[in-house]
Design goal:
With 127 residues, this protein is of the alpha+beta class. It has two helices and five strands; from the N terminus they run βββββαα. β3 and β4 form a beta hairpin.
């Protein structure tokens, strides 16, 4: 068992960042990890600031426990997948627009010689 100092974000009611000591199982989490804590006001998510000596002297005193480390790996992978899908959708939309425009110009060229001439010139310019 270890005692760790955990900081909590400022809230709407409290503009200061607060830090409290909690008990933690050995090896559960490291400095900088987000953790779920059993606080006097219920469950709260905080970040481990430091690992303190386990002796029961004043500054390392704790009365509540860290419940678990917050594992963000799956969430980060999900965000990466969403971002990649967003890029693919944007590229598909661009290609769809280009295809629709090309098809429309081709159909217009059948009945309008001026459009046919411009489309032929455009094809030559674009290689």
């Amino acid at each position: 068992m270890k005692v760790v100092k955990v900081k909590f974000r400022a809230s709407d009611y409290n503009n200061s960042v607060t830090a409290y000591n909690f008990f933690m199982e050995d090896g559960m989490a490291d400095i900088g990890d987000p953790v779920v804590c059993d606080t006097a006001k219920g469950l709260a998510v905080g970040t481990i600031l430091e690992i303190l000596d386990s002796n029961p002297s004043g500054r390392t005193r704790a009365s509540k426990w860290i419940i678990q480390k917050v594992d963000l790996a799956t969430h980060m992978q999900r965000l990466q997948r969403e971002e990649h899908a967003k890029k693919i959708r944007a590229e598909l939309a661009k290609k769809k627009f280009e295809f629709e425009a090309q098809q429309l110009y081709s159909m217009m060229a059948v009945s309008d010689p001026e459009v046919a001439k411009m489309l032929e010139e455009l094809k030559k310019l674009e290689g």
